[in-house]
C-alpha cells in the first residue's frame, strides 16, 4: 500500500483510494441521511461526491504524465503532473475562499442551527471525519515519499474537508452543550484562512516549478558529488529543473585540454551514472565539457 514502482504508480493509488473512499462516504451518508431524515447529512453526501473530482483530476493528469516521450513531446509528458497540481491548487484556493465567505456570512446573519446533525447522524459525521483524516495522511505520505505534487495538493483538499466537517461538529456541540453560539462560523473562518494560506503556498511552489526555478539544494548536492572526481578541474553552471517530480540536470565540467576524447566521454558517463545512483530522482543529465 506504500511501495510503488514510481511516482506515477503512487499517484494512481492515491487517486483510486480517494475516489473509493469518497464514493463510499457518499453512499453511507446518503443512506444514513435518508433513514435519519437529516438534510445536513444529505447535503454533506453530495458535497462529498464532488470531492472525488480533484482525485479524478490526479488520476487523469498522472496518466498523461506517465506516457513515454514521443515525436511531439521529446521531453516526455511529465509537465502534465505539474500543470494538474497547479490547477487543483487554484481550485482549492477558490474553495477556501468560498468557505471563508460562508463563515463570515454565518457570523453576520442569524442562522438556524441544524439540529438534525445531533444524535445518530453525529456518529456518521464523526466516522466520516476519521476516514477523511486517514485519506489525508495517506495522500500526504505518498506525496512526501514520492515527491508528488499531485498527491500533496490532493492531500490538502482531504485536510480541508476533514477540518471543515470537524469544525461543524465542534461548533454545534459547543452551542448544544455550553450554549456558545456561532463557534462553527468562527472556526470555519479560521480553517478556511489556513487552507487559503497553504493553498497559496502550494500554488506558488508549483508556479516556481513551471517557471523552471533552479533547485539550489540539489545543485549543492551535485557539486559535492562531483568533487569526488579527481579528473574534473572545475565545475560550473549547474542547472536543475523539475519536470513531473523528476530532475533534469545540465552542467559544465572543465577537463585538461590534452585529454583524449574517449577519456573525456568516459568521465562524463561516470558522472551521469553516479549522479543518477546517488540522487534517484534525476532522470537526465547533460554535460558540457570545457578544455582547461
Ligand atoms: Zn471538498
Ligand atoms: Zn505526446
Automatic annotation (TrEMBL):
Metal-binding found in the keyword field: no
Keyword Glycoprotein: no
Residues of the Cation efflux protein cytoplasmic domain: 217-291
Bilayer-spanning residue ranges: 15-39, 83-101, 113-139, 160-178
A GO term from the CC aspect: membrane
Location of the protein in the cell: Membrane
Molecular function via GO: monoatomic cation transmembrane transporter activity
Principal location listed in the UniProt entry: membrane
InterPro entries: Cation_efflux, Cation_efflux_CTD, Cation_efflux_CTD_sf, Cation_efflux_TM, Cation_efflux_TMD_sf, CDF_Transporter
Name of the protein in question: Cation efflux family protein
Species the sequence originates in: Fervidicoccus fontis (strain DSM 19380 / JCM 18336 / VKM B-2539 / Kam940)
